[in-house]
Design a protein that fits this description.
By secondary structure, the chain is of the alpha/beta class. The chain has 9 helices and 9 strands. Helix 1 packs across helix 7 and helix 8 crosses helix 9.
Amino acid sequence: MVENYYTNKIVWITGASSGIGKETAIQLASKGAKLVLSARNSSELEILRKSLKNSTFHLVLPLDLEKSANFDELTSLVIEKFGRIDILVNNGGISQRATAFETTMEVNRKIMEINFFGNIALAKSVLPYMQAQKSGQFLIISSISGKFGFFLRSAYCASKHALHGYYDSLSLEEEQNGIKVTMVCPGKINTPISTNAIGGHGENHGLMDHNQATGMPVSECVKKMLVGLQKQKRELLIGNKEILAVKIKRFFPNLFWKIIKKQAAT
């Protein structure tokens, strides 16, 4: 692999204030990338920017995935500053901790708006510039829940499944323009995703689930992710033994359903 692959790459990261997004920023900055850091919490983003290597190279650009009307304007600001966008890390999103029965339609729509529609809206804003460059990469953070359904995550799983269909299509269409898509399906990773999840009526879950607390360190997850992105892998399953469930479901579906229903929801 090329050692300096990420040097001077312009990388836009959503959900950069915590978890996988924050760790991605830390590791990419150390590799010489120039970053656009986006999330809703501008103060956390500014703290992160100041902590990064070559801190003056990076741009803090607050963004709310639930409000996509200004995405074209924000993209123009990135182009104005850097002149190009090499990689979009579409990581921002929200998880769920409620049964399908308990979850209101308002919450279902909120999760889809953030995880799917906001995600693809930003990709569509960036895409014309990548087409003009005849190059670019989309790194899409899905989930192992994008491969099968699971307890307390009906809308979350649906939003992640939708990303796979959308970006499979986009990848086929944009290959002629030198644009690549890498889908990442993390399993149990030690991040605040469960703490920030919402319940059936939009309330904050506010708890670190056992599955996250005992999961793969986020630094290890991101390291594997960036290696896969550099190799332009189409899909990456990252985690511990839980990622075997994807292969079991594919090749032994009856066994999969026997196993999965015995797993702890949190």
